[in-house]
Write a structure and sequence with these properties.
The protein is an alpha+beta fold. It is built from four helices and six strands; from the N terminus they run βββααβββαα. Helix 1 packs parallel to helix 2. The radius of gyration is 18 Å and the shape is globular.
Length: about 200
């Protein structure tokens, strides 16, 4: 059973929980940057993060629960992993969920554009199966963030994003109709939003 935490401005955590004979047999914890790139704990410059992942995994198996102590020096990561494991255990419980999606903010990533070699990362906030907030950034091939004031569609990128956001709040999650003059942005945004929705699924 796999689930994700709420996304912060800097990262998002995921958990894969293995259940055997009704018990937690194993837990794999991962963490991703705000560019939706998985952190390699063997090279990541904050060693507490990798240590926290290993320690919390073992503690959760021992406790048969997500109810473990926050790892000192990795509070944000620990909180996210605990939430992700709690959500995975909800999926494993067999109880029919009330909603299709968990309430929260989820980080999605689009495909890479064949036109410019960039991809889009979006933060999608859900409540009662509706998108209630949305923000995005474009990650360039050199892994810098596109300045949103740059004109890309004959109008500033930020304006196109706002048009998409307005449509996203009003439409079925993940299915915004093509915005005139910003076809590529619409398709890429929908792809990234659906990726975030996949992370938010309650079963």
């Amino acid at each position: 059973y796999e689930a994700w935490s709420d996304a912060s401005d800097k990262s998002i955590q995921s958990a894969k929980v293995f259940i055997e004979n009704g018990k937690i047999a194993g837990v794999i914890l991962r963490e991703y940057t705000d560019k939706h790139v998985e952190k390699d704990f063997s090279t990541y410059p904050w060693p507490q993060a990798g240590e926290a992942a290993r320690t919390l995994s073992a503690q959760m198996v021992a406790a048969q629960s997500a109810d473990v102590d926050i790892f000192t020096g990795a509070t944000g990561s620990s909180t996210g992993w605990i939430q992700a494991v709690e959500r995975a255990l909800e999926k494993a419980s067999g109880t029919e969920p009330t909603n299709k999606y968990f309430d929260g903010t989820f980080l999605g990533r689009s495909e890479t554009s064949s036109y410019g070699g960039y991809y889009k990362v979006v933060w999608v906030t859900l409540k009662n199966d509706k998108v209630v907030d949305y923000k995005a950034q474009r990650v360039l091939p050199d892994h810098t963030i596109q300045d949103p004031s740059v004109e890309v569609y004959g109008w500033p990128l930020e304006m196109a994003r706002n048009s998409y956001k307005e449509a996203a709040l009003a439409s079925e999650p993940g299915y915004v109709d093509v915005i005139t003059g910003a076809t590529g942005l619409t398709h890429q945004s929908n792809h990234a939003v659906r990726d975030a929705l996949d992370q938010a699924l309650t079963k």
